[in-house]
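Following up on my earlier message about iron/sulfur cluster. Here are the inputs again, as you asked, copied directly from the submission form:
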Amino acid sequence: MAIYNPKSKTAEEFINHEEILDTLDYAEKNKSNAEVIDKVLEKARLKKGLTHREAAILLDCDIPEKNAEIFALAEQIKKDYYGNRIVLFAPLYLSNYCVNSCVYCPYHIKNKNISRKKLTQEEIRREVIALQDMGHKRLALETGEDPVHNPIEYVLESIETIYGIKHRNGAIRRVNVNIAATTVENYRRLRDAGIGTYILFQETYHKESYLKLHPAGPKHDYDYHTEAMDRAMEGGIDDVGCGVLFGLELYRYEFAGLLMHAEHLEAVYGVGPHTISVPRIRRADDIDPSTFDNGIDDDTFAKIVACIRIAVPYTGMIVSTRESRKVRERVLHLGVSQISGGSRTSVGGYAEEEEPEDNSAQFDVSDTRTLDQIVNWLMKMDYIPSFCTACYREGRTGDRFMALCKNMQILNCCHPNALMTLKEYLGDYASEDTRNVGLKLIEKELLNVPNEKVRNICAENLMKISEGSRDFRF
Ligand code: SF4
Ligand code: SF4
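Thanks, got it. Here's what our run produced:
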């Protein structure tokens, strides 16, 4: 039997089934124990994070007053670490060819219903220009796993194409990459291509379920998949993004696994995950979410977001357009720091007027608003939409980033960068109403830049942006 060891690089030791079962048992036994919960909350108020065991107790807690404290603390931590900024990005689907058999994804190899597509470099240009014309600066690349159609060379060439496109004032300044688990050598090549975060969802940490949910194809190898972040870090990628697909397994199990993964990365590499994503299973071509037994309701989803926020305050949290406007509004308060907007989840969807009806989408989008509507909506709720990509371009990645983040110095960069990139967006892409709302917001928020020198430089740069200059950053 494998023994739990966060420092081990063996999947079954750092994500240890027995340790998760013990954790869930411990949490279940203490879910009504106010004394134990208070102790955990006391530690959580230091805003330095919690262990998976401690966080599991908060997740299970069934005392209403304590739950109110948990939600209030998550909101406070969100404000302290991220202020009122929300970073925006869009997914870009390059290819839906895939040799895997994931039972929850319509791209699985046996689906003969779906149109298979792979973008040429020219089609990528068209997609990226459409994304730039919406105002996006940060993309997440997505492809299925297929060594023939989507080899690493194709991904690398596509990244080069994307970074090379300068259309009007547009530029994609950060390309995050969500591709299948691969070798250290390939991760090194992705690093050399200048990717931002390498994102790979674990889908489920429960090995037995994992093997059933991925019955064939290279992704069937649980250990290889689970150890991917280790190889990515060995390949020199500093920023990795974790996530599970909620609905596949019991959420309490996934929650503990996710935090153990973060603890492992921290223990071995000194840097936890840069981001955590919290997707829930959605309807798609031949996928019916109701066939999965472990769906979670909106209240549970909110609690998970709040508890992740408390457990890993320094890790960005992402929700996509899988979630409705209503749900996104709720979880933005509780800890989410990045959202996608104006997304198309089909291959080649952005260059079309409407999402193509060729069923090439990976999932049905729930929040179908345009990026302008999303920016407008965020600002009307007093959030600052941010198109900032400064950190990785300034070399603030991995432990350098985490050190600044953990002592909250990063706020001196995030806030002015958000204002400057928003100003660029308003000048180049916004509707009139959005521009008016945004200019007022910038005026107000400039006063909230704490450091006087930074505030003055920011004010000067904002003027220069009005005159046509671009790409300032702290
Ligand atoms: S989840 Fe990824 S690996 Fe699995 S079938 Fe879909 S695209 Fe392929
Ligand atoms: S300054 Fe860094 S951490 Fe802050 S929003 Fe920009 S890229 Fe993100």
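One observation from looking it over: Residues 314 and 405 are 6 Å apart (CA to CA). Hope that helps, and feel free to reply on this thread.
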